[in-house]
Design brief:
Number of strands: 7
Number of domains: 3
Shape: elongated
Number of helices: 14
Order of helices and strands: HHHHHHHHHEHHEEHEHEHEE
Largest sheet: 4 strands, antiparallel
Strand order of the largest sheet: 4-5-7-6
Low-confidence stretches: 203-235, 238-249, 258-277
Distance between the termini: 83 Å
Strand content: 5-15%
Radius of gyration: 36 Å
């Protein structure tokens, strides 16, 4: 509060001298460490656009404070065009700040985290404003690319502990034995031979007369069900409702149907087995 009043007093007096420069430099650095953008952004702009035009700052000071504003525009507001405009206008030569902006533009989270380890405390505090967005992008990439990942790997690329990460982003992935399962592989059912289908079909005998006809050895294909409206018209609304195309992976469903229903006919060609009931 006192720093804000001092800044507002200097602004109202339109005083630009060594004292004013020192006050704005101090306020900027203190506000950055407190991560209070409402204080350091106006101070940065006043330093660069007002004080510098009247009382030029030194090259190290220009490079420092212009890089702070450049990082703020990229990390907080995602104004990448404005960030590069600051770099060009004030001739910023800070490879770490440039690497941060590049990592955000390209979505390179490895570059972002590695650069964060190299910057000073002021730049690191500004970079914190982009961390949640970086973690969100990482989780999207991992979720689309992997079925399971190691817990340590996920914590390393997100720079956050897994329990905190799961609570913060509401992640529903399962953890088991130091592994995080994003999705589980679907298990295939055990194929059943066509002989088993014949045995199951024979259970539908009625007074010794079967309601089926099997004409050829069939290969088993996937089960697909479609409605046959002409059978309903021919045999009534309660008869002939479905045509079942039996397939290699799931003939067990047909076996259940044949054992429970009155089958009008079972016909097969070289590739398909049809059951009409």
């Amino acid at each position: 509060m006192d720093m804000r009043k001092l800044r507002e007093g200097l602004l109202a007096s339109k005083r630009i001298d060594e004292f004013t420069t020192g006050v704005y430099i101090f306020i900027t650095r203190a506000a950055i460490l407190m991560s209070h953008s409402q204080s350091y952004v106006p101070s940065l702009r006043y330093l660069l656009y007002n004080i510098h035009s009247v009382r030029p700052l030194s090259n190290p000071e220009i490079n420092e404070f212009a890089s702070y504003l450049m990082l703020h525009l990229a990390c907080s507001t995602q104004a990448y065009h404005d960030a590069y405009e600051i770099k060009t206008r004030f001739r910023v030569h800070d490879f770490r700040a440039e690497a941060v902006v590049k990592s955000l533009v390209t979505g390179n989270y490895w570059l972002f985290w590695s650069t964060k380890k190299l910057v000073d405390g002021y730049k690191a505090r500004i970079m914190e404003k982009a961390e949640k967005r970086i973690r969100t992008d990482i989780l999207k990439v991992v979720g689309k690319s992997y079925m399971q990942v190691d817990v340590d790997f996920l914590q390393n690329i997100t720079a956050r502990e897994w329990p905190i990460l799961r609570e913060e982003f509401g992640i529903g992935w399962e953890e088991e034995a130091k592994m995080i399962y994003i999705r589980r592989a679907k298990t295939k059912s055990t194929p059943i031979t066509s002989e088993a289908a014949k045995v199951a079909a024979q259970k539908t005998m009625n007074n010794g007369k079967p309601f089926y006809k099997i004409w050829k050895q069939c290969k088993l294909l996937n089960i697909v069900q479609t409605k046959l409206t002409f059978l309903q018209k021919t045999h009534g609304p309660n008869m002939g409702k479905k045509l079942i195309l039996v397939d290699q992976t799931n003939i067990d469903k047909l076996c259940i149907i044949l054992s429970r229903c009155s089958v009008w006919s079972v016909e097969c060609d070289e590739f398909n087995l049809f059951a009409v009931f």
